[in-house]
C-alpha cells in the first residue's frame, strides 16, 4: 500500500512555471487589446478572454494527476507557504467577494468593512489557535481530526454530515456567481456555461485533488490579482497620476465627501441591530461613503464580524489547505500570506469603489435624463444601472446600481478598452472556480473519507480510496449545479448563512478539542448538534418572519449554547481515556512529524518486518 510520498522537497521551478503562466496571461490580454484596436469582432474577443484562461487551467489540472493518496489529499505536504496562502486567500474571498465586496463598498461605504474584518480575523484565529494543531494530527478533514482526537467513529460521521450543509451553501453561492459572470462575458446558454465550468472543476479536483487545487488555484489567483491590480493601476494613473491607487485614493475620498455634502446626502444613524447591506438587486445610493453605521448598526457590525471570523477560523473547506505545507512554521507563514493577500484585494476593491463614486458624481450628477453619457446607457441596457427621474437636474439619489455590477461598470465608465472589462469578468470567474473547487474537494473528501469509509480506522488501498474520492467529487459537482438551478438566493446571503452555521456547529468544538482536555466525545457530538440546530432554526425562523433580527446574524446565536452544552455534557460523562489525553498532548506540540504520517511509517515498517 503506497501511503508515503516520494519526496518532500519543494519544486525549485515553481516560480518559473507560474512566471510563464503569468507571461502567457499578460500576452493574451495585450494581443486581444491590439486586436480590439484593429476592429476585431467583439464576439471573438469575449471568447478569447474566456477560453484561453480556462484551457490553461485545464492543462495545469491534467498535469497535476496523481495516483498517491498523500499527493491527492495533502499535495505531498510540500507546497511553499506563499502559494498555499495565495490559494487560501482567493478561496476565502471567491467570486462572491470579488464582485459583491466592490458593490458593498460603493453602496454601503464604511459599513461593508465588517465582512473584511471578519475574514481576516478568522484567518488570524486559524493561524494562531487552530491550524497548526489540526495539521499535527495529519488529518485530511476536520471530522477525521475530531475522530482521532476522541477515538469516536460516531463523532466522525456526525461532524461530516453536519459540516456538509454550510459547504453546500458556499458551493451554491460560488457556482451561481461564476455562471452569472460567465453569462455577462459570452452569449451562451446557462447549460453550456455550466458544462464548461464543470469540466474545469472536475479536472481540477478529480485528477489531482489537493495537488490540483494548489497549482490550478495558484494560476486562478494570479489571474485575479493581475486583473484587479492592473485595473487599479490604470484608474490610479488617470485620476491621481500614481499607479498605486490603494495608497492614493485619500484625496479622491475627501473630494467625494465634499460632493456628498453638496448633494445633501443625509447622514443616517440606524438602530443597533439593523443590518442593511445592499442586496442583489438595484440599490439607490442614499448613504455617505465614510460615515459609519448608516446601514449597519454597531451591534450588527460586531456580530457580523464575529460570526464571519468564527466561521472562517473553523471552516472545514479552508482548514485542509494548511496541511499541504512542509511544516508547522510554513503553515503559519501561509496564514500570514493569506492575510496579506486578503488585505491587498480588499484595499484594491475599496479603492475602486471610491473611484467609481467619484466618476458617478462627476459625470452623472447634475445632468438631465436625456443627457446621460453613452457608457451609462450601455450599463442600463445590461441591467447594471438605472435612473429614476426624468425631469430636472439629477442628484446622486436618483440613480440605482446593481451591487455585483459595480466592478464591471468601472472600466466602461472610465473609458478604458472593452478588454479591461472582460479581464475583470474572467477574474471573477477564476475566483469562483477556485472557491468552488476547494469546496467541492472538501465535501467529496468528507463524503468519501468520513462517511463512506468513516467506520474504519485503517484507510483502504489507494486505488479504491482515490476512486471513491473522485466519484464523490463528480457527484458533488452535479449536486452543486442542481442547487444553483433551484436555489435563487443572493450569493452573499448564502455566504453569511454558511459562516454563521459553521461558527455555531464547528467553532466551539474545534477550539475546545484543542484547548480543553476534559472534553469528551459525547460532549463534542452534543455541541455540534446543538449549535447546528439552533443556527438553522434561527435562520429559518427569520425567513418566516418569526424573528426581528436579520438572518445573516442569527447563525452566531448557536455559538454560546454549543459551548455550554459541550462543557455540561463533558462534565456529566467519564473522563477521557489515557490514550485520548496523549493525543491531545501530542497535538499541542505542533512541530515534528504528523501523527498520521508516523502511523503510516510504523505500519509500513511492521509490514516489511513481517514479510522478512
Task: Give a brief description.
This protein has helices at about 15-35, 40-65, 70-75, 80-110, 115-135, 140-150, 155-185, 190-210, 210-240, 245-250, 250-260, 300-315, 330-365, 375-380, 405-415, 420-450, 460-485, 490-505, 505-515, 520-545, 550-555, 560-570, 580-585, 595-610, and strands at about 280-285, 385, 400. The protein contains 24 helices and three strands.
Write up what this structure looks like.
With 612 residues, this protein is mostly helical. The protein has one domain: Sodium/glucose cotransporter (Up-down Bundle), CATH 1.20.1730. The protein contains 24 helices and three strands. It has a three-stranded antiparallel sheet with strand order 1-3-2. α2 runs antiparallel to α9, α7 (153-185) packs across α17 and α15 (406-413) runs antiparallel to α16. The chain is globular, with a radius of gyration of 25 Å. 55% of the residues are buried.
Percent in strands? under 5%
CATH architecture verdict: Up-down Bundle
Count every helix, treating DSSP H or I runs of 4 or more residues as helices.
24
For the sheet with most strands, the description reads: 3 strands, antiparallel
Structural class category = mainly alpha
CATH topology: Sodium/glucose cotransporter
Estimate percent helicity.
over 70%
How many strands in all?
3
Instruction: Output the CATH homologous superfamily.
Output: Sodium/glucose cotransporter
Return the average pLDDT rounded to an integer: 89
C-alpha Rg, in Å? 25 Å
How many domains is the backbone divided into? 1
Q: Which CATH C-level class is it?
A: Mainly Alpha
SSE order? HHHHHHHHHHHEHHHEEHHHHHHHHHH
Q: What is the 3D form? A: globular
Alpha-carbon distance between the two ends: 17 Å
